Automatic annotation (TrEMBL):
Keywords: Hydrolase, Metal-binding, Zinc. This is D-aminoacyl-tRNA deacylase. Residues 27-37 have a biased composition (Basic and acidic residues). The gene is dtdA. The keyword Hydrolase applies.
Amino acid sequence: MIAVVVSRADSASEHTGEQLLALADWTAREDDSRPDADGGGTYHRTTVGGTVLERREFDDLHIRLDDPTPAFSERPDFLVFVSRHSGDTGPLLTCHFTGNFGPAEYGGSDRAFAPACPGVQRALVAGFDEHAPEGYDVAVECTHHGPTDVAVPSVFAELGSDEAEWDDPAGAAAVARAVLDLPERDATVAVDGGDGPVEGVDDADGSDGSAPRHLVGFGGGHYAPRFERVLRETAWGVGHVASDWQLEELGHPAEHRDTLAAAFAASDARFALLEGDRPALERALRDLGDGDADAGTDVPSGVRVVSETWVREADDRPLDLVAALEADLRPVDEGLRFGESRSTDYEVHSLPADLLAEAHGIDADATLAAVEARSVAFETSENGTRADGRAAFPHADAREELIDDLARVLRGKYDEVTRLDGAVVARVAAFDPAAAVERGVPEGPEFGRLAAGEPVEVGGETVRPAEVRREREERFRV
């Protein structure tokens, strides 16, 4: 069940709540067990894609609410607070999680975090992208206000950024549609882990038994374009995000390891992505261990600080497989790249260096594509653009198949390419300057014409291209 929280103290929230009722077939019910101001009285339920959504209204502003979870008729899998966004950003649909890395100036408790649901945020961003009216941007914000004492994962879905947008029916409808889409949002969009049993929203870790595909973000501005890119362009979910100003509120990282650990526990994350160079923060994160978090979930010993390159390369691959390949080959940040095969069984072999280099010089894109197609992972140089070194192959024949692929690339330059025992042999007939000199052809334009396949006249005689060509053979050991 998805719980939707509407605040009567927030006009954007009220308008979004009205659009929710208009866009789906809801059943009105009565709850006399609690005051109308606290979610009682008339409330509404509907079912979308087999998932129940329950909508309740509260008098207080969202950020000042106590945990609204008990108001709902059953324990929800997660809460969505439909809310306004205030700022100088123009028309904007945005979402974020709640908590405070420092003092709680805007609700919640100091240095505390509500449980996040990274997969739900992914789905909201996808919904915003689909439904945003013309002129509206879509963004993800850092963690920056209450409530923090929430019993289940929660997320704010916001309409911004001023009175004109708060009263805009089209903007409110876009937020409402994104919320109503959550149960049916495809799992590849809403990849998650640990968000609860909502089908299509929560199964994140590839069923490989590894850590959830979540990370905690650090650094950057209030709006988080780097972490938004991660949500849009990879299979990773982003939990809590500490912007630059939130890190200032935190203070020295080594003195607030418990706060850092609480952010990871609330995000169900074991990975950190940093914006900028932050050695003190990196040290503090790597020193985190079991029992650091007072949030009901222990943080595993040592958080892994990863790069955006690592996140993009790991993407939706089983994380246990990524770790094994980094151990058997090299780390992603030192040039490991992944191929098309997802086999968890593999053999590590050297790439055919000479053949690979020749093929790369003929068609670099086709050469790299061939290695990707035949491998589980491979080592690279030149910022990941050139396969070089060793590769993990899914079976013994895959390396042989790669050699055949590279031999085909050589046919773009050579007249004949064949495989012999332990080698690829390439032959080409090419213009031979020495033979041309022997026929009396002077260096200059005539050389160029002969090389281009045109005959030339020298001393009243015709010299044909075939007469000044010689066959050259190259052998590439494999």
